[in-house]
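Example 488.
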Amino acid sequence: MSGDAGEGLLLDAAAVDGWAAAADVVIVGFGMAGACAAIEARAAGASVIVIERTSGCTGSTSAAAGHFYLGGGTAVQQACGFEDSADEMARYLEAVALDPDHEKIRLYADGSVAHFDWLEAQGVPFDRSYYPQKNVVQPGRECLIWTGNEQVWPYREQAKPAPRGHKVAFDGEEGGGALALRLLSERAEAAGATIMADTKVEALVRDGGRIVGVKVRRFGETSFVRAGKAVVLAAGGFGQNAEMVAEHVPILASAYVQGSPHDDGLGIRLGEAAGGVAIHMDEPFLTSPFYPPEDLLKGVLVNRDGARFVAEDSYHSRSGIFSARQPDGIVYLIVDAAIFAYPHFASLTNQSLIDGFETIAEMETGLGLPAGSLQRTMADYNAHAAKGEDPAFHKYPKWLKPLEEGPFAAFDLSFGRAVYTGFTLGGLKVSADGVVLDAAGAAVPGLYAAGACASNIAQDSNGYASGTCLGEASFFGRRAGRHAATLV
Ligand SMILES: Cc1cc2nc3c(=O)[nH]c(=O)nc-3n(C[C@H](O)[C@H](O)[C@H](O)COP(=O)(O)OP(=O)(O)OC[C@H]3O[C@@H](n4cnc5c(N)ncnc54)[C@H](O)[C@@H]3O)c2cc1C
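Predicted structure in complex with flavin-adenine dinucleotide:
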């Protein structure tokens, strides 16, 4: 989708009959990216108006667990005894990225420690503690956790692994993002940013080649807000726009799309109307976590051909996207009696148990897999696992054990039957300072974007690590706010 396409998303300044309000920097959306942009634009001396269509901070940030992907030797990593460096963090992000943006990765890795310190200085709390288990979100206040593929082959050979998921100190699996956003939004207001709540931005205003303001609607009344220097789009993703999902990431139409109900893609469409381009729009975050309990990682994933296809110890959105893209979406998780007997297996809520089988041969028939396929896969897996090896997918030795003692159980991870959740990752192409870029890579004057409506570090489900979205929304949101404030 490009250009205004008759949607009225771009107006000429000549059509504006008066400005109801004005500031140097006008920010669209008060989520993680908008709040951080506002704080930094104020710190740089600009006047700021943040326009938020809801009554408060209710974007996807409020739904987030509260992981920030940070490293390079943060205070928490040091306190917990983990060595990390900006170089290793950059190496990892380069290795795992779909389409690495070298400049942004370098800036993000080099600036990660200072960014962590900045978040703490704004009042966002992080415990000095480590959560050692493989989990999607740690249930308590513990901070540091492995949230990516750092220990997964081949990445563990390309960069020295370190845990980089930093969870906001919050008891519970949901609420860390909301806590961080409440604190940051209070900071933005205390710093002097004006918040216009219950106000929806409907169009950008352009004067000559430059974006100079926005058209807004509040309780049925239309007015215009002037931006003396720039407009920063921080309006979230497009997961709730069925048309855009069908056009770009149809796989999400069969999943439960999480996030803000206002993820309607308007931020992206506004940017496109002004001449910007969107990238990586066809890559979702998609997952069906089958851990915790972490013992289930010792199981084996097979497709409809009875063949393995991914290292089972991958971060859950990596195994999730590999699973969803298997032929017919058919995937089974196979475990033995010992794993099945693990006390907390009942916590597996995304996938249902198909059945138990006395032998692998019976399971093969029961699941309708090609004759001999599963038996061959398991015999091969078991022979190597007994030696602590996995030449096919290089699963980390900690998760390797022969699965030989029946009865065996199969869980259904098939796409369309198991619960898959996701959100969009694509967004406007922006410079490292958040400037919206056109197809030729030139700046759209006066227009910035950050957070889920822009594309920065998080690009696809394979390379995603929990914490990348909040990490980049805050990091590049700050850069956008700062840069916009210094425009002349
Ligand atoms: C369940 C869940 C858990 C997650 N957990 C994590 C996690 O732990 N770590 C992580 O890194 N990522 C996580 N994510 C992803 C992350 O939450 C988002 O990518 C991130 O919060 C996006 O921040 P944002 O500021 O770009 O957008 P948002 O937080 O969505 O903010 C955008 C704001 O813009 C407003 N808005 C939209 N359109 C307009 C308009 N036209 N006019 C005015 N205002 C508008 C919206 O109301 C909203 O308040 C999670 C996502 C979900 C759904």
